[in-house]
Write a sequence for this structure.
C-alpha cells in the first residue's frame, strides 16, 4: 500500500434516543472502514447495523486475504457489490423470521483504501466526505426523499432540511428483498482526510462547520472526532451520532497518535 493512515472512531447515543443504533468498525490491515445507522426502532435497528458492520468487515477483508494468498486478481467492485447484496438478503430474511426484528434495516457506508484508490459503497443517508487541501467535499449522495426533491429542483437545500419526511431513506440494507448499492472509486492523495458519518451529525451540524472543526484539529483526528460528536450534542443531539475519521499519509509518515481509534469490527465507543 503506497499510503499509511491514522484513524479515529467515535459514537454517541445523543441526548434524546435511549439506544445507540449506530455501529462503526475498522480493519486497518485491510484499509477498511464501515459505518451503519440502524433503522426500525427499539433494538432491531441496533441488530441490523451491527450485523452489517461485523459481517462486511469479515467478508471483505477475508476476500482480499484469500485473493492475496492465492495470487489471484482482486476486484473490489465485485466484492463490495456481492457482499452488500448478500447482506441485504440476510437482514431482510432475519426481519421476516422474527417479530422482534420486523421492519429492521440499516444504512451503510464503506470506505476501502486499496493501493492508490479509495473504494466507496453506500446505501441510505450515511455519508462519506473527503477533505483535500483544506476543502471539505461530500463524496456520497444521499439515498433519501429529500435528496430526490433536491435533484428534481423542487426544494432548496435550506428547505430540504425542514421537510417533515427529510429522514426518509429510499435505499437501506434489509428494507426490501432487492437493493442496488452505489459503488464508486476515487484517487487518493497524501493528506486526504476521510469522514464517514451518520445523519446524527449532518442533521445537527452544517457542512461548513464540520469542515471548520476537522481543519482546526488536524492532525489530531481523535480530537476532531470528539469535537464533531460534541458539536452535534450541543446542537440538540436529537439522534445517535457516529463518525469515523481517516488521515491518509505518505507511506511511513506517522501523524498524531490515534488514541480514539478502536479496531473492533462493530464497536460502540464509550459515550463520554
Amino acid at each position: 500500500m503506497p499510503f499509511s493512515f491514522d484513524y479515529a472512531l467515535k459514537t454517541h447515543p445523543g441526548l434524546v434516543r435511549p439506544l445507540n443504533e449506530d455501529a462503526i468498525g475498522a480493519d486497518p490491515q485491510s484499509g477498511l472502514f464501515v459505518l451503519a445507522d440502524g433503522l426500525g426502532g427499539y433494538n432491531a435497528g441496533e441488530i441490523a447495523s451491527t450485523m452489517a458492520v461485523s459481517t462486511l468487515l469479515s467478508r471483505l477483508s477475508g476476500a482480499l486475504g484469500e485473493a492475496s494468498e492465492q495470487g489471484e486478481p482482486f476486484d473490489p467492485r465485485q466484492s463490495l457489490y456481492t457482499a452488500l447484496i448478500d447482506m441485504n438478503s440476510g437482514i431482510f430474511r432475519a426481519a421476516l423470521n422474527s417479530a422482534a426484528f420486523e421492519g429492521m434495516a440499516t444504512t451503510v457506508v464503506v470506505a476501502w483504501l486499496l493501493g492508490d484508490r479509495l473504494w466507496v459503497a453506500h446505501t441510505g443517508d450515511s455519508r462519506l466526505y473527503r477533505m483535500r487541501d483544506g476543502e471539505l467535499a461530500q463524496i456520497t449522495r444521499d439515498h433519501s426523499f429529500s435528496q430526490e426533491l433536491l435533484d428534481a429542483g423542487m426544494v432548496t437545500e435550506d428547505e430540504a432540511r425542514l421537510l417533515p419526511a427529510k429522514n426518509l431513506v429510499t435505499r437501506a440494507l434489509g428494507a426490501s428483498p432487492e437493493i442496488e448499492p452505489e459503488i464508486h472509486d476515487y484517487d487518493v492523495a497524501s493528506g486526504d482526510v476521510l469522514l464517514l458519518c451518520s445523519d446524527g451529525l449532518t442533521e445537527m451540524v452544517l457542512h461548513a462547520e464540520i469542515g471548520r472543526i476537522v481543519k482546526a484539529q488536524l492532525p489530531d483526528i481523535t480530537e476532531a472526532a470528539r469535537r464533531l460528536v460534541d458539536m452535534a450534542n450541543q446542537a440538540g443531539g436529537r439522534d445517535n451520532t457516529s463518525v469515523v475519521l481517516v488521515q491518509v499519509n505518505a507511506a511511513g509518515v506517522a501523524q498524531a497518535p490515534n488514541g480514539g481509534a478502536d479496531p473492533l469490527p462493530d464497536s460502540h465507543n464509550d459515550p463520554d
About this structure: Helices lie at 44-70, 76-97, 145-151, 157-160, 199-202, 207-217, 221-234.
